[in-house]
Amino acid sequence: MSRPTVSPADAIRSLSGWSIAPGDRPAIARSLTFADFNTAFAFMTRVALKAETMDHHPEWSNVYNRVEVVLTTHDAGGVTELDQTLAGFIDAAALSLGGK
């Protein structure tokens, strides 16, 4: 299935707190901070469940209350609507859990 890509700059226009990921590959990134580890882990669990239903999974890391997220669609070689949709879900999930 073909997935059209969009430029990372276009992808983040409608997203708050997202930036173009550093490096050579087209991707978008966001850094989030939560009150504590439990809240960060709850956020990651919520996103993981949604990502699984979308068959689209983030690259991320977690240290205590911080979560770093990178989104790109590997099989399309860039940022797609899947990334934008998952980013919107990530924003809503973070907001509901007090993420900044």
Secondary-structure topology with pairs:
Elements: E1 5-6, H1 8-12, E2 19-20, E3 28-33, H2 37-54, E4 59-63, E5 66-71, E6 79-80, H3 81-96
Antiparallel strand pairs: 1-6, 2-3, 3-5, 4-5
Helix pairs in contact: 2-3
Description:
This protein has 100 residues and is an alpha+beta fold. The protein contains 3 helices and 6 strands; from the N terminus they run βαββαβββα. The chain has helices spanning 8-12, 37-54, 81-96; strands at residues 5-6, 19-20, 28-33, 59-63, 66-71, 79-80.
User: Which range does the strand content fall in?
Assistant: 15-25%
Shape: globular
Strand count, sense and closure of the main sheet?
4 strands, antiparallel
Distance between the termini: 35 Å
- Note the run of SSEs as H and E: EHEEHEEEH
Low-confidence stretches are none
Helicity range: 25-40%
- How many extended strands? 6
- Quote the average pLDDT: 95
Q: Structural class, please?
A: alpha+beta
CA-based gyration radius? 13 Å
Number of helices: 3
Strand order of the largest sheet: 2-3-5-4
